[in-house]
Amino acid sequence: MMNSEQVRKIFLEYFTKLGHTVVQSSPVVPLDDPTLLFTNAGMNQFKDIFVGKIACPYEPPRAASTQKCIRVSGKHNDLEEVGKDEYHHTFFEMLGNWSFGDYFKQEAIQWAWELLTEQYKIPPEKLWAAVHYDDKESAQIWKNIIGLDERKIVRCGDEDNFWEMAETGPCGPTTEIHYDWGEKFDPDQSALPNSSPRFVEVWNIVFMQYFRNPDGSLDPLPAKNVDTGMGFERLVAILQGTRDDYSTDLFAPMIDTIAEISGHRYDENDRIRMAFRVLADHIRALAFAIADGALPGNTGRGYVLRRILRRAARFSRILDIHKPIVWKLVSPLIDKMGPIYPELLEKAPVITHIIKSEEERFGKTLDYGIELFEEIADRVISAGENEISGEDAFKLYDTYGFPLDLTRLMASERGLTVNMDEFEGLMEQQRQRARSTGTFSVEHQKKQDWIKITDGEDSYNLCYETESTEAEIRLFRRLSDDKIEIVLSQTPFYAESGGQIGDTGKIYNKFYNLNVIDTRYEGEHIVHICAADNAGQSMNILENIRAHPQVKAEIEHQRRDAIRKNHTATHLLHRALRSVLGTHIRQAGSMVAHDRLRFDYTHYETPTIDQLEKIERIVNEVIQNNLPVSTQITSYQDAIDEGAIALFGEKYGSKVRMVKINDFSKELCGGTHIDSTGKLGLFLITDEQNIGSGMRRIEAITGLTAVHYAQSIRRKWSEIKRKLSATEDEVLDRLDKLFDELSDIRKKQEKLSDARAETTAENLLESALQIEQSKVIISKVTVRSRDELLKIVSDLEKNVSSGVILLGAVLQDGKVAFVCSVTEDMINSNNIKAGEIVRQVATVAGGSGGGRPDFAQAGGNNPKKLDSALKLAEKIILHKIRN
Q1: N or C: which end of the chain has fewer CB within 10 A?
Q2: CATH code of the domain covering residue 518
Q3: In whole numbers, what is the pLDDT of the chain averaged over residues?
């Protein structure tokens, strides 16, 4: 039987022999594409090639890879489905081969068939094909060249066999290869792929031959591409003779570990089997995502990871495991996958630490969630009902990480059901929010508004060699009355990329002068965004440029020099961060400007002051040592072998530019740098902050900017000492004394406030409206803060066993505040709900609010309407009580 390592190796070797460049898997965290939560297909890293944004770097233009993918939403990929069957996964590998305007349908189909039947030895009679009903060419290839029985060539529509990148952009028909598991899974002799459980899709081959226009029409693409994808786990299962992906050697190490820890068997029963699958699957998604720079958090991909981890932790309870277990699956996973994906080996301690600490924190939340479920169930049963609301189920799911299927299971154990329609409505709202950031858009890359000025090649890059050059204007485009864009034959201007901002400067001759205010890439063009010296010149500039296209291009030297310093400092900072915080640190973005630098990085906790000072000290020591900075053009692999750091998510060609700071730092980088670290002068960190989802940001300055900053801090420090009448050694003691005095004053104020609140509450109780056994207190009160208003309500609640309390006040900022409290008997017998009451009265006062039936708050912007609002409340409340 073929093991998974052999399956992967055969695939890559097969396509290597067919002239494909084997491309390393991109990270599952697409740091260069903020529109994607996770890399979810093999073609993601080739998107820019397919849409014509960059030229294909491979010769011949063919590629193959095994891509790490994570899918947790979308058609057939709902997280809640994982564990229920043998083939749903959050993390999976996608085997694929691509042609960028090279081979097309016949070769793609032939090679796929030969690999499956000759290399993997799958019996040909087990394979079927599906084609688009308009794709007669593919059908003929399957029939006449492959020799597939006509009965086994299934014609399908757009839903199954037409692929589109987006509403507009490249698209085309697909052909699929399906494996037939036989009559055991469906005895129906008329069963067909895409409609019967006996068939499983093995390989999907996309033929990008059209461009979808905004009006829906299709135009043939000038270069036709091939994009294929084959699910690795599914293929391994077929080759190992099992319908269950989780019974293959890919999952065996985790399954065995779970069995050892829990004392249960994988095949014990459906409930236990599902828990095994969830744990074995989810650890793969978590480990690979963390290894590639993602961290559990409250937004975006961090929130998705947190959901995955919490779902796994919750399922461990089914196995009678009440201590963290997910982190214990890191080791068997890395034993299996580490040799193939070394980033797992490199990040093993970090992966383990993050999962364990997150799991331990969630344990308390999970226990509280279980208690909450029991409270919900008790409430439903005591009310004589048999259904848990969708809102309650969604709260358990969204806030406490309870998978819906487990909520339903726990409900069934109590004889209850869950309102699925309400739950799905709330889920759909969440999906809509996710979709808004889950797809990428494609713009037609054809630009019709360039005006050709001269013929010849353009954008020869001289930014590393000189700061000025003679050039010819090749292309012209007007942006507005006062801005134009220029493409030159050659240029010393650096175009914004790699976090470094574009150069500014001037393009001029004796006939006109253009101020370059930015420089950017557009495809292969280096585009200079220019402003003319005056509006009149701008309007007539095209005539001048046509008549006099020869110019001198000159960058702004001082600005470039400052940018160079900050870019070199960014490399020093990156190396220092890895030295102090750990080698798991990864660059997640940067901005290198002339006056500052910003560095975003992945890390799971806030660096201490001592750590930040150590980082700053390391960088300044390197500056003091005046180390040489050099660049080298080399092969990607040689650079990596030498220890260079490559930016995750960045696409590199066969040749790369490596920036070396002696032996201290080596990075692949296309930016501009100084030639020795001593020219930086000084490096200071000005800010460090959390920017969400396991990402942190450092801002720093260098050179004279840092000197000026230090001087301004010194001036402020001197002013603080003067105002405190303290020496440097006395400042902190003097501040502590002031804070203590301030704390005493606040405590006295709180006592006075409490006393006022107590007196007000007593007066309100005496004047309360008594209706049978209930009290109604509706009043305007005078308070100094919202807290005082809440304290009055709290004091009243202690003395009102049945009734309604609604207080309104104008706060010191001139805003209106309302607080309402309703006892349970008034909610049940009179349908008086605090949230509804405050919502109505707040509207009168020009505000809004809401809350629970028993307690709610609201605000308003119109204090003149406070009395009217309270009168409305009195009318509503008394009407409900008396009727």
Answers
A1: C
A2: 2.40.30.130
A3: 90
Confidence (pTM): 0.65
Nearby residues of 331 by Cβ (< 8 Å), 6 or more positions away: 257, 348, 352
Phi/psi of residue 190, nearest 5 degrees = -95, 5
Can you give the CATH number for the domain in which 871 is found? 3.10.310.40
Closest CA to 220 of 201, 237, 207: 207
Number of Cβ within 10 Å of residue 736's Cβ equals: 10
> Are 89 and 200 found together in one domain?
yes
End-to-end CA distance of the chain: 79
- The helix/strand count (H/E) of the chain reads as 26, 33
Residue 753 CA to residue 782 CA, distance in Å, equals 11
- 572 with 601, same domain? yes
Residue from 540, 553, 560, 556 nearest 486 by CA: 553
Q: Is residue 158 domain-resident? A: yes
Looking at the fold, whether 565 and 538 belong to one and the same domain comes out as no
CB 465 within 8 A of CB 493: no
Q: What is the DSSP letter of 39?
A: -
- The backbone torsions φ and ψ at residue 584, rounded to the nearest 5 degrees and listed phi first, read -75, -15
The CATH number of the domain holding residue 628 is 3.30.980.10
- Number of alpha carbons in the 13 Å side-chain half-sphere of residue 642: 22
Residues with Cβ within 8 Å of residue 272, at least 6 apart in sequence: 264, 265, 266, 318, 319
Same domain, 190 and 204: yes
Residue 688 pairs in a beta bridge with 698
Residues 566 and 659 in one domain: yes
Convert the pLDDT of each residue in 196-250 to its tens digit.
888 999 999 999 999 888 888 999 988 899 999 999 999 999 999 999 999 999 9
Report the C-alpha gap between 602 and 589 in whole angstroms.
10
Closest listed residue to residue 784, CA positions, set 761, 817, 832: 817
Closest by alpha carbon to 83, among 238, 242, 250, 266? 266
Whether residues 347 and 317 fall in one domain: yes
**Enclosing domain of residue 206:** 4-250
| Residue at token pair 């006395």 | 730
**Cα gap 458→493, rounded to integer Å:** 13
Q: Contact at 8 Å (CB) between 806 and 777?
A: yes
Last residue of a domain, one of 539, 555, 571: 555
User: Omega before 187 cis (within 30°)?
Assistant: no
pLDDT of residue 757: 86
Q: Are residues 787 and 672 in the same domain?
A: no
In this predicted model, what pLDDT tens digit does every residue of 369-392 receive, in sequence order? Answer: 778 888 899 888 888 888 999 999
Long-range contacts of 148-157 (CB under 8 A, 24+ apart): 152/127, 152/128, 153/128, 153/129, 154/128, 154/129, 154/130, 154/192, 154/193, 154/194, 155/130, 155/131, 156/130, 156/131, 156/132, 156/194, 157/132, 157/133
What tokens appear for 771 in the block?
């209706």
Q: Do 544 and 589 fall into the same domain?
A: no
| Four-point Cα dihedral 827, 828, 831, 836, nearest 10 | 40
The residue ranges of DSSP E strands in 232-372, in sequence order, are: none
Are 30 and 44 in contact by the 8 Å Cβ rule? The answer is: yes
Where residue 36 falls (left for φ over 0; alpha for ψ -120 to 50; beta otherwise) is beta
Q: Cα torsion at 696, 701, 707, 711 (round to 10°)?
A: -40
Q: What is the pLDDT of residue 612?
A: 98
Spatial contact of 735 and 640, defined as CB atoms under 8 Å apart: no
Does residue 260 sit within a domain? no
**What mean pLDDT is predicted for residues 396-401?**
77
CATH number, domain with residue 226: 3.30.930.10
For the chain, the domain total comes to 5
Q: Which strands, in side-by-side order, build the sheet including 655-661?
A: 629-635, 655-661, 665-668
Task: Give the CB-side neighbour count of residue 579, counting CA atoms within 13 A.
Answer: 16
Of 502, 460, 495, 522, nearest to 53 (Cα)?
522
